[in-house]
Amino acid sequence: MVSTSGKDQPSDNESCYVEMEEEAEYQRQLKLFSECSQEKSIELVLIGEVISGLRSSERFLDIGAGTGNLTVSVSQFFAETTIVEPNERQAGFFRRRYPQFRVDDCRWEEVDLGSDQFDFILCSHVLYYIPTHDWLKTIDKMYSHLAADGTIAIVLQSPVGEVAEFFRKFSKYDVPVIELWRNLTMTYGYQSVQVRYFVNEIFAETMEDMVDLGQFLLLDRKYRGRKDEIGKYFEERHKVDGGYRITQDEILLTIKRER
Ligand SMILES: C[S@@+](CC[C@H](N)C(=O)[O-])C[C@H]1O[C@@H](n2cnc3c(N)ncnc32)[C@H](O)[C@@H]1O
Question: Mean of the per-residue pLDDT values for the chain?
Fold first, then answer.
């Protein structure tokens, strides 16, 4: 399937098959990532700290909920949970398994939540899927749905640290967190914007698993053809006793809406 024109285009069945295969591969890598890192547990502790400072815990909005490994735990603290998740399979899973949640299966940029207001809005590892020049507009839409005394929490990978370095070696993508932080401070005020830093350790016993994790971190399936290069990178820099270890620095930005 080299050409994208005329008769070489995949049939509906073929594209559906490729999509399912990719989805299965993504789910496998995601499962491996959950087993090899404490990222979500650390994130949950920090999110818990933010939630404990809220005045009201009526309504929670999760943007880009993914597999729900943050959503489900966080939802326990709120009377109502709303999810915006464009991945149809994930949205379908939430509808079947958690019928009490409201689920919108579209992108955040497209969703119409009317005049709904939320006490807590979570956007964890989602901004990468939106062009950086649209980030402020995207966050402003979140702010327009934030109740008085409510808080938005945005989690992003830090531009420094071992995973960021690995990213830079294979991809041109850089996360402009400092610029975002500065712009948020200018828009919402110094008192309303806070930043927390945390470091997660990723450990794999085998090189095969470490390469899978590397491909998962790189987000794009085009890196599947560069397994040897990725393996060499980890072998030279991240080999430790009993396996491979890389640290991932992350940032939690919060914006509070003052009454
Ligand atoms: C890396 S996952 C993060 C999942 C979860 N928030 C977490 O931190 O574990 C990114 C999720 O964002 C969703 N997503 C991508 N673009 C989006 C958009 N424009 N609006 C809302 N969600 C989006 C994807 O479908 C995916 O489920």
Answer: 90
Fold of 12-162+173-202+249-256: Rossmann fold (3.40.50)
Domain spans of the chain, in order of start: 12-162+173-202+249-256
Banded model confidence at residue 125, pLDDT cuts 50, 70, 90: very high
Q: Is the CB of 128 under 6 A from ligand 1?
A: no
- Tell me if 63 CB under 6 Å of ligand 1: yes
Distance CA 197, CA 199 (A): 7
The backbone torsions φ and ψ at residue 113, rounded to the nearest 5 degrees and listed phi first, read: -100, 15
Task: Check if 86 has its Cβ closer than 6 Å to any atom of ligand 1.
Answer: yes
Global pTM reads 0.89
Is the shortest distance between the CB of 60 and ligand 1 below 6 Å?
no
Q: What percent of the chain has pLDDT over 90?
A: 76
Label residue 7 by pLDDT band (50, 70, 90): very low
What is the best residue among 122, 129, 218 to mutate for testing ligand 1's pocket, by most ligand atoms within 8 Å of CB? 129
